[in-house]
Design a protein that fits this description.
The structure holds 2 protein chains of 2 kinds. Chain A is α+β, with helices and mostly antiparallel strands. Chain A is built from 9 helices and 21 strands. Chain A has 2 domains: 234 residues, P-loop containing nucleotide triphosphate hydrolases (Rossmann fold), CATH 3.40.50; 119 residues, RNA polymerase II/Efflux pump adaptor protein, barrel-sandwich hybrid domain (OB fold (Dihydrolipoamide Acetyltransferase, E2P), Beta Barrel). Chain A has a 6-stranded mixed β-sheet with strand order 7-8-9-3-10-11, with helices on both faces. In chain A, strands 2-1-4-5-6 form a 5-stranded antiparallel β-sheet. A 5-stranded mixed beta barrel of chain A has the order 12-13-14-21-15. In chain A, β12 and β13 form a beta hairpin. In chain A, α4 packs across α5. Chain A is globular, with a radius of gyration of 25 Å. Chain B is an all-alpha fold. Helix content of chain B is 72%, strand content 1%. A two-stranded antiparallel ribbon of chain B has the order 1-2. Chain B is globular. The chains are: A alpha+beta, B mainly alpha. Chains A and B meet through β2, β6, β7, α3 and α5 of A and α1, α21 and α22 of B.
């Protein structure tokens, strides 16, 4: 995204830098999103995603850069602008839900409206409406401590959206829930966000959460943005080895770029032990002829067959077969490399047998190391 | 794309925002409170150091700079002995209190001693009472001629002379030992109770017996707690004024505290010499507290691996009745006998060592408590009013400070929070009498000298860290996100404090308030240094009565103070729960 792109966006983060002591937590990042969109900051712990979120919230001060939402500058140290968190008109859902235990669900949800000095009847209406939206109407008079994890989650969301803020922030809100509930809540959260249409930023280290929920994903590492884009783009066209590895499962091989053509395809050679192969593939951004690159192949794009069906097929030995019902996870040994392959159960692969692997050149990508 | 730079167009800086950025409510309050705490804690200590190098000439008018005072405390005929006595008392008290505290905590937490759940609150009662009153009560029981216990033994067993004599250095060790035992108890009982039973079970599976497991696994695991408790007891007993003042000083065993009092207060007071002695005492206690915080507290083994443990309870067999008897005996000598003896003595017009049922009277209560009656004694009347005022106002101000300071240390975490953390430890390292000496030399020439305000200042400075710890422990257990979500909901810092933080901390605030109220109601060693005519406190009233009036009057006022403390204790337990004080 270029700076011109950012300047037309609803939320703009420009050249954000944040230090903790001498550690640079966020290293000069810029991004923007449209009004109503759902953006996910994705990365492992320590990548700066939470720091970025906290900076937008105003719970951290930033060292330099600027954050602007809907024409309102939240913070810009160079102009000595720092809007305290309560002036930013943001709804936020915390990792621990942060439901106040000394209040009922209704009191929790009414709180932002009371702060905004709405009159009593309006507060009652809005609270009732919001609680029904998150499906907590029955729990309205329960004490916060009597709620289950999922219910606290909904109450927390209700409290964040009740005042119809400019921006909705989520700090790993699903990480405390068990797997089943987490999967249900993903869909639920996305539905509610769609319904209220509030611009949202979501922080998570869970790539599948990011893929399911987001309009746009920003993958971060060590305080930098590695790639940003729509989920499909991030998944199918990772910019580099890091992104490819972080999103989904991929076979990542050291490769040398032999040929680059104008339409973005080309050829690479990979060598592991005594095995060598020259494979046609797509060439990722910033990769040039002669470069050392990483070849990224998703397991579902590796096709197995007992006969050699293509010139670029390679021959390997089946090592490990795990039957998982609708598919089979297997490892195929090729030289010193072990391919992760997803096969169909009816292929009836047996451990130790020789097999040919074929790669779809449209789904084989050479990316920066 | 991360390397792209963005041209920020120069915007006019918004003055209102710039102003808001610097002068947030949070920052303003932080700066004010830090300044107050820094001045209150640091100023008296600096003045104390400076004063210790000022030597008063023989006429007592002018001073000069020298190390003379330090020479004096070594060459003086009494002070070195007082120093030695202090060391003997502290060592003896520490050994006794540690033995009592650990054994009681162990029986209550880890054995099947009968009635251990209801025994615990009784074991802790001395924590809330005044050791000075304990000394007075034990004087009534163990004085060679008129002591109740001695008379009892004479009457029942026909023994000539006396069985016990409490009026000496051993009496001081005895009284301070039983009164400070709960300090050690509180340091160890928590980790004994929360100890992962598998640690002991694994010792048992290797073939170690019960006794051996207790000695080689259980006690070593709580050793950091035991050592911390022992050091706190040593420091507390070094600063104890009331007990040696009552039991040993009149009979020739001076201590550093009684010497500081004698030298620094009175007709020919030498504040500078007092300051020097206070420095010597303070240097020892600060050193020990530093050792405790630096080396011992961090070593506490994390024996808690999760909630829901049911610690192994040792079956003592028929020995459990021995444990029960031991526990009851402690409660008897530490709580019940002292209170009964005070009651008996207080009901006599004059105390001569024997109970005279025909002479029973309430006149002592009239004279000490019924302030509206003509015959009421000024020192007692003033003491009641002043102490209630000081305790109420002092506890309230301390808790406000404690709240803000805890918030700054554990939430704001910004500029100066480590300094505040440090400033909150410093007063704990100095005995009350040392800090009072510093307060005295600092403010003696200001208008607050000889008013209640100097007492209030001394109380708050010395004891607000206790309230701070009470709040901090709860604050640490509450997620920061609870505050942050209120800010995100649009509430200012002050509104967040009022509607979220303070309501969540309420039990801790009330419990801390009551704890400070008790401490202030019974406070002696600061009060004795800073009071004048009209600003006596309750403990000073007791001091006055025991010095200038008779034992029955003293006992009456002592009992009143004790009852007040007991009521507060019950309120404290109700509010804070039974684990509240344990480390």
């Amino acid at each position: 995204m270029t700076s011109e792109d950012i300047s037309s966006k609803y939320l703009q983060v420009r050249n954000l830098v944040k230090y903790f002591g001498d550690d640079k937590a966020v290293d000069n990042i810029s991004f923007g999103i449209d009004e109503g969109a759902f953006l996910t900051l994705l990365g492992p712990s320590g990548c700066g995603k939470t720091t970025t979120l906290m900076s937008i919230a105003g719970l951290h001060t930033i060292n330099s850069g600027a954050i602007e939402v809907g024409g309102l500058t939240y913070t810009e140290p160079s102009s000595s602008i720092f809007l305290p968190p309560e002036k930013r008109d943001i709804g936020m859902v915390f990792q621990s839900y942060a439901i106040w235990p000394h209040m009922t669900v209704t009191q929790n949800v009414a709180y932002p409206l009371e702060i905004r000095k709405l009159n009593k009847s309006e507060i009652d209406d809005r609270v009732a409406e919001t609680l029904s939206l998150v499906d907590l109407t029955d729990m309205a008079e329960k004490n916060a401590t009597q709620l289950s994890g999922g219910q606290q989650q909904r109450a927390s969301l209700a409290r964040a959206i009740v005042s119809n803020p400019r921006l909705l922030l989520f700090d790993e809100p699903l990480s405390n829930l068990d797997l089943k509930l987490r999967e249900a809540m993903r869909v639920e959260l996305k539905r509610i966000q769609n319904e209220v249409g509030i611009t949202s930023i979501y922080v998570t280290h869970d790539q599948s959460e990011a893929l399911v929920m987001s309009d746009e994903i920003i993958v971060m590492s060590k305080g930098n943005i590695e790639q940003s884009g729509e989920p499909v783009e991030i998944y199918s066209k990772p910019n580099n080895k890091y992104v490819s590895n972080f999103i989904g499962v991929a076979n990542l091989l050291d490769a040398k770029v032999e040929k680059v053509t104008e339409d973005g395809s080309g050829e690479v050679t990979v060598q592991y032990g005594e095995m060598t192969a020259r494979l046609p593939c797509r060439i990722g951004r910033g990769v040039h002829q002669g470069d050392e690159a990483t070849l990224s192949v998703r397991p579902e794009n590796v096709h197995v067959s007992r006969d050699k069906t293509s010139d670029s097929s390679i021959e390997g030995k089946v090592e490990n077969v795990i039957f998982l019902g609708n598919h089979v996870d297997c490892r195929v040994n090729w030289g010193e490399y072990e391919w992760k392959v997803i096969a169909h159960p009816r292929d009836r692969l047996k451990e130790g047998e020789k097999i040919y692997l074929r790669f779809d050149s449209d789904h084989t990508l050479a990316v920066q190391q | 794309m991360t390397s792209e730079t963005y041209d920020t167009d120069p915007r006019p800086s918004r003055m209102s925002n710039r102003f808001r950025a610097l002068w947030t409510q949070e920052n303003v309050i932080t700066i004010i409170v830090s300044a107050i705490v820094a001045i209150a804690v640091v100023l008296p200590l600096i003045t104390l150091v400076v004063s210790s190098f000022l030597v008063l000439d023989d006429l007592g008018f002018s001073t000069e700079w020298s190390f003379g005072n330090y020479v004096t405390i070594v060459t003086d005929p009494i002070i070195p002995k007082a120093f030695l006595n202090t060391l003997i008392i502290c060592s003896g008290c520490t050994v006794l209190a540690t033995f009592l505290g650990v054994s009681l905590a162990w029986t209550n937490a880890r054995t099947n001693c009968p009635g251990r759940t209801w025994l615990e609150p009784f074991n802790l009662i001395p924590f809330f009472l005044s050791p000075f009153i304990g000394a007075i009560a034990w004087h009534n029981m163990g004085e060679p001629k008129t002591g109740l216990l001695n008379n009892f033994f004479r009457d029942i067993f026909g023994i000539e002379g006396h069985v016990i004599n409490i009026d000496n250095i051993w009496g001081v060790i005895w009284v301070t030992g039983i009164f400070f035992a709960p300090l050690v108890y509180l340091f160890v009982v928590g980790s004994l109770r929360r100890m992962d039973p598998s640690l002991e079970d694994s010792a048992r599976t290797t073939g170690a017996g019960l006794f051996r497991t207790t000695m080689t696994v259980t006690l070593p695991l709580v050793m950091p707690g035991i050592l911390s408790g022992a050091i706190i007891v040593f420091v507390t007993s070094a600063g104890e004024f009331g007990v040696p003042f009552k039991l040993s000083a009149p009979y020739g065993w001076e201590t550093l505290t009684t010497q500081i009092f004698t030298k620094a207060v009175g007709d020919d007071a030498n504040h500078y010499l007092g300051a020097t002695m206070a420095m010597a005492l303070g240097a020892i206690t600060v050193f020990l507290i530093w050792i405790q915080r630096r080396y011992i507290a961090p070593r506490s083994f994390e024996t808690v691996t999760g909630k829901g443990f049911r610690p192994n309870v040792l079956d003592l067999g028929s020995w459990k009745w021995v444990a029960f008897g031991y526990n009851i005996l402690f409660i008897l000598v530490a709580v019940i006998l002292p209170i009964i003896s005070l009651l008996i003595v207080s009901l006599h017009p004059v105390w001569q060592g024997t109970i005279m049922l025909d002479k029973i009277t309430g006149i002592n209560y009239v004279k000490t408590l019924f302030f509206w009656r003509e015959e009421s004694i000024d020192a007692a009347t003033n003491g009641i009013f002043n102490s209630l005022f000081l305790a109420f106002v002092g506890a309230s101000i301390s808790m406000v400070l404690a709240l803000v300071v805890s918030y700054m240390i554990h939430r704001t975490k910004g500029f100066g929070s480590w300094l505040l953390d440090f400033l909150c430890v410093v007063p704990i390292g100095f005995p009350g009498i040392v800090l009072a000496m510093g307060v005295l030399v600092t403010y003696i020439q200001t208008p607050i000298y000889a008013t209640l305000w100097i007492l209030l200042l001394g109380y708050i400075t010395r004891f607000f860290p206790y309230g701070q710890r009470n709040i901090a422990s709860i604050l640490l257990s509450i997620s920061e996100e609870l505050d942050q979500s209120s800010r995100m909901a649009g509430a200012t810092w002050v509104t967040t404090m009022r509607r979220i933080t303070i309501p969540l901390l309420k039990p801790g605030i009330f419990a801390g308030w009551i704890l400070l109220f008790v401490i202030f109601v019974r406070e002696l060693s600061i009060s004795i240094m800073l009071y004048t005519d009209g600003t006596e406190t309750l403990a000073v009233g007791v001091y006055y009565l025991t010095n200038y009036e008779n034992e029955p009057l003293t006992a009456a006022l002592s009992l009143a103070q004790t009852l007040l403390c007991l009521i507060c204790m019950i309120a404290f337990r109700r509010l804070a729960g039974k684990e509240a004080l344990s480390a």
